[in-house]
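Hey, resending since the last one bounced:
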Amino acid sequence: MKHNDIDMKKWKESDINTDSLWIIKERDKSGKHKNVYHGNFIPQIPNQLIRRYTKEGEIVLEPFMGSGTTLFECEKLNRKYIGFDINPEMVAYVSQSMDDAKYENDYYIAECNSLDFSEVANNMQMASYKLSRTQVQFVLMHPPYMDIVKFTENSNDLSQIDNIQEFVQKFKTICENSLQYLEKNRYFAIVIGDVYKNSEVIPLGFYCMDMIKRNFKVKLKGTIVKNIEGNRGKLGVGGIWRYRALNSDYYIFKHEYIFVFKKEFS
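The structure tokens again:
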């Protein structure tokens, strides 16, 4: 079934990337996008996913809003948006960035612990009242990569977790709290990278992908590898990272994963 506005009569002209390897040389700096937050991802990722899996006027839900990258893309692409974040500073920053009155009634953002069923339910109820819909058509999740970067001191923040089993279990809870609002037979995506701890690679992305496959009735529709050239945390440090790698036994992380799923449960 077709869940986008792509004109297949002009498919050769489309810039939608259907490959499983995304090489993106630099981040989009247009509009409201600013590389001010260590954990934000490049705007091209939500742009591609939103245009591939939604139509204009449909709703995107994001339980890890961060600095508003996906919200800004939804505004540009004429999609509605619901975003939650546990970091009050980021919620305030994003609120200040949204100064376009024309889009005021098309989004809902809130400080919210996405681990808490009641908090999510209450905010979704307020969002549905504002947007006049009870379900969303796409969910995008870009969680912290364990405690590699600690975004807040809140004990409910996934960036406080240094144990892979605890992280995966809590991420499962957030998936349960979020995916119940996604329409059946619609899509969701996880953007996540691996971590390096105790002198070894922990394949965090694959742990999370496996958890979703084991616990939810879904189909994995894509495993995309995206380069992280131009990532804020790696800017200007290529030389020193290469030196450290050569002086040791590891490889430099240059990739993240985008796992795309189709929801098959009500």
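The CA atoms of residues 86 and 157 lie 7 Å apart.

Sorry for the duplicate.
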